[in-house]
Amino acid sequence: GACTLWKSDGTALGTTPVTTLGNGYAHKYAVLNDKLILGYEDGSNIQILATDGTTHINLFNYSASHLTSGSQLKMQVYNGRVYLNNATGTDGLELWSTDGTQSGSSIVGDINPGVDDGGASSFIVYNGKLYFTGTGSDGNNLYWTDGTGLGTKKLLSPVGALQSTLEHGAAMKVFKDSLYYEATYAPSITN
């Protein structure tokens, strides 16, 4: 049968359908002010939807083929917006944000320029910035953003390291005022 989004107050009488989505499944939810943002997948497309609890609107769609090699739909609320990965015909899977409206949904940064996927994933808020993993032209790295294109940067490798390798979608955690993550750093060669 068709996937239906339901809501409940914990009682049988207070459990009611909100809207029918179609033949697929809903996953990855984020609450933004008075809206629930969710991802819905039907096997070939991902739809990003918003609901106020009565009906839903479609914010944008992209091909599920972009969610390969361990990449998954991810969402994070940060500074009054939901940040997530989205793909268009001209940009690969990249960092997007939405305020819960179609007109307020747009790309933040093209980590891997052109149609190649930048694959923004594994979001965490730390020190007033949104950190995430992404794939640039030099491989998987840790990035941060202040929510703007110009304010989206790759985290620099530690002193003495030539480059880093970070597992795409790597886990991150804030602990004792520091951001912890796993990466492999290649030492720089000095003569």
Give me the secondary-structure topology.
Layout: E1 3-8, E2 15-22, E3 25-32, E4 35-41, E5 45-51, E6 56-63, E7 75-78, E8 81-86, E9 94-98, E10 105-109, E11 121-126, E12 129-136, E13 139-145, E14 152-154, E15 161-165, E16 172-175, E17 178-181, E18 184-187
Antiparallel strand pairs: 1-2, 3-4, 4-5, 5-6, 7-8, 8-9, 9-10, 11-12, 12-13, 13-14, 15-18, 16-17
Attribute tags:
four-stranded antiparallel β-sheet; single chain; 191 residues; mainly beta
What does this structure look like?
- By secondary structure, the chain is mainly β.
- It contains no helices and 18 strands.
- A hairpin with a 6-residue loop joins strand 13 and strand 14.
- The chain is globular.
- The termini are far apart.
Question: Brief overview, please?
Answer:
The protein is built from no helices and 18 strands. By secondary structure, it is mainly beta.
Strand order of the largest sheet: 3-4-5-6
Largest sheet: 4 strands, antiparallel
Radius of gyration: 18 Å
Unreliable runs, pLDDT <50, ≥5 residues?
Answer: none
Order of helices and strands: EEEEEEEEEEEEEEEEEE
Q: Total number of helical segments? A: 0
Which structural category do the helix and sheet elements fall into? mainly beta
- How many extended strands? 18
Name the assembly state: single chain
What's the N-to-C terminus distance?
Answer: 67 Å
Helix content: under 10%
What overall geometry do the principal axes of the alpha carbons give? globular
Hey, roughly how much beta strand do the residues contain? over 45%
Average residue-wise pLDDT: 82
